[in-house]
Design brief:
The protein is α/β, with parallel strands linked by helices. The protein has twelve helices and 18 strands. It has a seven-stranded mixed sheet with strand order 5-4-13-14-15-12-16, sandwiched between helices. It has a six-stranded mixed sheet with strand order 7-2-1-11-18-17. It has a three-stranded antiparallel sheet with strand order 8-9-10. A hairpin with a 2-residue loop joins strand 17 (277-278) and strand 18 (281-283). It binds flavin-adenine dinucleotide (FAD).
């Protein structure tokens, strides 16, 4: 298929797809609701087959140059005494701390830099209406611009409005996993050097890690709430409320909340859909198949999905229906296995009792010293490598 493709969303999936499409000669427009590329977010990981996709995208060096280089992490008590630690090298680069670990905002910037010369980016705008006919999709933007495209890709995240416009309401597809997560930049007041600290109390957890200054991260158990995902004040109130009375460095970190340049809070959820495309509209990344941040694979699925979708669109030439069904066929099992892993991680995250916290610390302590501990990584490696990547050709001129 040749032609003009509109991608909605300029975080990870959107610019990654733009890159793979540009390599194959497509004309690409990306529309992003935010007025500029959004900074922020915790470190995201590339594991298993995702590293191969990054290599085939030709971005390996640029992404590695922007990596966090986290050396390890420790579980601490309320007095910052280290109770158990893991090193990045403990599990050969695919463990808790992956070999390629990069701040979400930095990865987004690398992908944007790689594509901005040849892609039309429309920041501060969004799609208001989509009307499909026999040869394309007529799109009306909120700014009033009207344009036609051959295909529209919703890469607009967990709260995708392309999904709700074309596939039905949020509640039909989003499954809450019982937690909320929050992240923001803080001063590195503990002088951490490439290290992360985590502290838990029943049902809630907090941490700080030294990337750029330092990044605070929090998780707490909660049923799904009726929370506007764009109302930052309400989200900050919620975080303060749920972490009230928590020990360790939490009061200091909460005092920095109002100065945070990049506060991010969201529910921990999965998107599950029977089909990721309808006519000439297709979903990618979290919009289609968010596995939840607790899977550690949201970015991986977005990058692998971008590679497969672009490859199939190029291979099918003008038959978009064949391309979209091949994208779905190749990705479906990989997505489901990663989502299953995400649900398993969510069950264990933020242990609900002091005994469960104590048990988790003992496991972390013991595992590091086990002979043959890399065998423990086998199930994870099977999941993160669980797709056969076709070798989609890239024309020599790109
Ligand atoms: C600011 C931010 C911080 C994040 N922090 C973390 C983190 O710390 N840990 C983690 O695991 N995951 C985080 N994520 C999610 C993570 O990026 C994704 O799970 C994963 O990388 C897949 O990315 P995605 O591009 O599919 O979706 P997302 O990264 O969610 O990106 C969706 C993009 O679409 C844009 N958008 C939304 N609606 C519209 C619309 N109507 N029109 C146009 N554009 C729209 C959004 O502004 C965003 O840029 C964060 C996402 C964002 C946006």
């Amino acid at each position: 298929m040749s032609g003009r493709i509109l991608i909605v969303g300029a975080s990870i999936a959107g610019p990654a797809l733009a890159h793979c499409l540009l390599q194959r000669g497509f004309e690409v427009t990306v529309v992003e609701r935010a007025p500029a590329l959004r900074p922020g977010g915790q470190a995201v990981d590339a594991r298993g087959v995702t590293n191969e996709v990054i290599r085939r995208m030709g971005l390996d060096q640029r992404i590695r140059a922007a990596c966090t280089e986290t050396a390890g992490a420790s579980y601490v008590d309320r007095n910052s005494r280290r109770l158990a630690s893991v090193l990045a090298t403990d599990f050969g680069g695919d463990g808790y701390i992956a070999e390629i670990e990069i701040l979400r905002g930095d990865l987004s910037r690398v992908l944007h830099d790689a594509t901005k010369g040849a892609t039309e980016y429309l920041f501060g705008d969004r799609v208001e209406a989509l009307t499909e006919d026999a040869d394309g999709v007529a799109v009306r933007f909120a700014s009033g611009i009207e344009r036609r495209f051959d295909l529209v890709v919703g890469a607009d995240g967990l709260h995708s409005s392309v999904r709700s416009m074309v596939f039905g309401p949020h509640a039909d597809h989003v499954r809450h996993l019982g937690h909320y997560l929050a992240f923001y930049t803080v001063p590195n007041h503990l002088g951490l050097d490439r290290w992360a600290l985590g502290y838990s109390e029943p049902g809630r957890t907090a941490g700080i890690r030294s990337i750029h200054d330092a990044m605070a991260f929090f998780g707490f158990r909660s049923a799904g709430l009726d929370l506007d995902h764009r109302d930052l004040d309400a989200q900050k109130r919620l975080l303060r409320e749920r972490l009230a009375g928590m020990g360790w460095e939490v009061p200091y970190l909460l005092e920095r909340l109002d100065d945070a340049p990049d506060f991010y809070l969201d529910q921990c959820a999965q998107v599950r859909m029977d089909s990721w495309s309808r006519g000439r509209v297709v979903l990618l990344g979290d919009a289609a198949f968010c596995p939840s941040p607790l899977s550690g694979q949201g970015t991986g699925l977005a990058l692998v999905g971008a590679y497969v979708l672009a490859g199939e669109l190029a291979a099918a030439r003008n038959d978009h229906a064949a391309a979209l069904s091949a994208y779905e066929r190749r990705m479906r099992e990989f997505v489901e296995r990663n989502q299953k892993m995400g649900r398993a991680h969510a069950e264990r995250y933020c242990p609900e009792s002091r005994v469960a916290i104590w048990a988790e610390i003992q496991v972390i302590r013991a595992v590091r010293h086990l002979p043959g501990k890399s065998l423990l990584m086998r199930p994870l490696l099977t999941v993160v490598n669980g797709i056969e990547l076709p070798d989609y050709p890239v024309p020599a001129a790109s």
